[in-house]
């Protein structure tokens, strides 16, 4: 089955053998079979590895790349979303603060208004009360004056009648009346 | 030092193919190991990688980096699988010959497949052939042909020589490095380690050289993959 390589050492000359084995291609002739075998084996290896190893591995690596890419995209998206939400929340807070400020301002204004209203009303009320009181006082005074006058009149009449009863005779009375009438006539 | 190769002839349609059974064995073993590493690493795939998946993804990213340093990913993406397979296959091949070599009946059976010039050259020719194939496929035949006259038409001979030089250096660099490593290991363990003193004396240099060979094997796998991508990008790119 086997036969010695083409450049089989010459029997009994070790030196030549040793030298020979360092020379390129000395170990074997041109073994065409090896060339084909190596080529075919390499191609088979390539095909098998592509089918069983590199293919699936590249698939999973591609899958991972896609996964990472999508995750990055997702993260970016959620980040912008978060930013938007933050901005919105900030705006909301700002609006709420402004509204609160507004409400306080309004309340203050309202209180101020009410205060002045109440003050004005009170002032008016007190003025009115004063007025009424004055009026009433005046009325009472007038009434009192009237009553006094009446009483003074009747008293004077009574006093006069008492005095007259005592001193005035009929003649005197007549004379007096006449004087009055005269006076009255002259006055005209 | 010198071992015979287990050769066998096979007649195929009137064509006589000579197989070196040791190469056949080691190529198969290397392929199986690469396949098993890749297969086992990619059994439990998850978005969140664990264990071996981390390792294999690191290899992928490493090759991706190599390709990206030579061409844009849109063009280079299709060579990703080729790059990873080349890197792992050559690395595993380089490592196979390091721990031991097996000689049975004076026939050398266990060695690095890449320590055989023909195997290394086959890979190199395959790679250079691929660069031409992709150049024609991606740029069209006329554009591919014109590239040989750029930037000046008198560059044609140089360009033609370059193709052969590329192929030869690519294959022989790999073969030379790995073969030299194995020769020295064989010398150390075979010729130096004779008797108790010899064994003791051989321990340190063998350890050192195995470590260095580990480094060389990894570097050579990287260089081979790197140069593959350099040649492909050189052929495929439009701007020179």
Layout of helices and strands, plus pairs?
The complex is a heterodimer of chains A (188) and B (240).
Chain A: H1 14-22, H2 32-167, H3 170-187
Chain B: E1 7-12, E2 15-20, H1 21-41, H2 52-68, H3 73-76, H4 80-96, E3 102-104, E4 107-110, H5 117-139, H6 141-146, H7 156-192, H8 195-236
Antiparallel strand pairs in B: 1-2, 3-4
Helix pairs in contact in B: 1-4, 2-4, 4-8, 5-7, 5-8, 7-8
Distance separating the two termini of chain B: 48 Å
Rg calc of chain A: 71 Å
| Major sheet summary line of chain A | none
Order of helices and strands of chain A: HHH
**How many individual β-strands of chain B?**
4
- Strand fraction of chain B equals 5-15%
How many structural domains are formed by the residues of chain A? 1
- Residue stretches of chain A low in confidence (pLDDT < 50, at least 5 long) are 1-28
Total beta strands of chain A = 0
Question: Helices and strands of chain B, in N-to-C order?
Answer: EEHHHHEEHHHH
What is the overall shape of chain B?
globular
The share of residues in helices of chain A is over 70%
Poorly predicted regions of chain B are: none
Major pleated sheet of chain B: 2 strands, antiparallel
Membrane topology (chain B): Multi-pass membrane protein
Subcellular location (chain B): Cell membrane; Membrane
Pfam families (chain B): ATP-synt_A (PF00119)
Transmembrane segments (chain B): 12-40, 79-98, 118-136, 183-203, 209-232
